[in-house]
Amino acid sequence: xxxxxLADWTELLEDYARxxxxxFSGQPHYFTQEYWYLFVACLRGRWRGTxxxxxxACQAMKTGSNRTREERINRAVGDGFLVKSKTGDDKRTTxxxxxxxxxxxxxxxxERTLALVQQTFGTSGxx
Length: 127
What we know:
It is a single chain. By secondary structure, this protein is mainly α. Helices cover 61% and strands 11% of the residues. It is built from 5 helices and 3 strands. A 3-stranded antiparallel β-sheet has the order 1-3-2. Strand 2 and strand 3 form a beta hairpin. The longest helix is centred in the last third of the chain and has 22 residues, at 100-121. The protein starts with a helix and ends in a 6-residue tail after the last helix.
C-alpha cells in the first residue's frame, strides 16, 4: 500500500482520537479505550434494537476485574452517560442504554470523523 495513503490514514486516526477527547473534554477519565468500547457497544445495541445487559457491557470492556468494569459502568450512569433500564416480561433483566446526552455526543463525534474520512479518501461511507 502507498505510504502516503497510510500516512494520511494515521493522521486521520489521530484526528479521530483527538475528537473523542474533545467530545469528553472536562472529564478526562472518559478518554480511555475502555469507555470507548463500552459507550460504542451500548450505542450500537440501542441503534440495532438489542440493548446490552450489564454482563455483556462488562464483557465489551477489554481490561479490568469485574468490579472495575462495574465501577466504570456506575460512574457513567452517575455522570449521566448511560441509563440502566429493566426489560423483559418479568422486568428482571437490566440493560444499559446510552442517555440522550451520550447519544448526541457520540453521534456528533462519529459524524465529524466520518465526514473527515469521506473528505480525505473520497468514500461515501455507505456499508
